[in-house]
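At your convenience, could you comment on the folded chain following this short note?
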Amino acid sequence: MFILLAVGALIGTWNMAGTIPTVVDYGIRLVSPAWFFFTATLVCALVGMVTGSSWTTAGTLGVAFVGMATVMGLSTAAAAGAVICGAYFGDKMTPLSETTILVPKLVGRGLTVGEHIRNMAWTAVPALGVSLVLFLIIGLRTRPETAASTAAAEEALERAYNVSVVCLLPLVLLVWFAARRVPPFLAILGSALFAGLLAPFTQPAAVRAFVDDPSLGPVATAAKAIFEAMAIGFVSNTGAPKVDQLFSRGGMASMLTTVWLILGALSFAAIMEHAGFLQRLLAPIVARARSRGALIMSVNASGVGLNAIAGDQYVADVLPARMFRDEFARRGLAPQVLSRAVEDSGTVTSVLVPWNTCGAYISGVLGVPTVAYLPYCFFNILSPLLDIAYGYLGFKTPGVPPEPVPTAGQPAPTGGGHDGPDD
């Protein structure tokens, strides 16, 4: 929730400082509509790997790409799907991601983060490759829906904002924070504050118009602008309706509805888990999965189901990892097979559920409903399907010597067991 509120503040100050307008302006100049969705996916994948966070990527560059799509007359739903595909690929394939670190620890048995990432690549890379091809086809077949030309959009942006490389400094600072492994909340909030301090120098006219109080001096105007942009969001008053509508966004207050949804989802998930309802649902699934393919499919089905039922990504990662790890060991399947199945379902599909914490967050920051962008989340849909197919084909599902661990519902043998991590 702190990250979410910080992203709200960041969107407000980045708009006020001209960071997002500059990214949009450079984007529509450099990227043709035919290559737009392909480029958005690739760039977000690279940034996601650097930052280690799909949320940070979507809340920064993702907002800019959806803004570009709006200016260029392209589908915002497809743009959001492209952002999500790239952001979640980057999130999965970096040792900076919290879920990429968490899942191997939950699975245990000496599994390292590096082994986990290398095995995930066998589903993640093909899924991203297919997504890039599909987005390229969509881009080549797409015609802008609006009559406004790109040149007219560029002219409107230049009239409204001082577009320059200096405006990109908050983005550079955020990437630097990520490279230094600064905690995400502090990195995002720090970049938001820096953008607020930069705004009076890069966009003085926009700041004065936003505050709209001639009685205040320059310092008081800047302070009030920073506070209001972070708290309630920036409101553009350039006189260009389309520009003002596009960049009047952000603020912590704009995230409160998503915060309430997350609180409700987490409370519901806690009750479901502590009352034993979720374990009661999963135990029969573990026991009835007879073949290797059925077992891997059960993990993926559990992850997708828990994202929908419990409404939280971490529940969908933690419970299957705990419930299935002994069964995988008993059947002689390597721990990285389980960890990949958990990530391909629990982590990746969370954004496809509107009431899930991830779905609520991404929809909130991008301003696109979950049901609208879902058909374009090719990577998120393909990842669990590929993992299930690999399970039935026996492709990249390495084995290990079976361990004498109990099956679901049976007591552990006296004096035996395994050296898994503490729950």
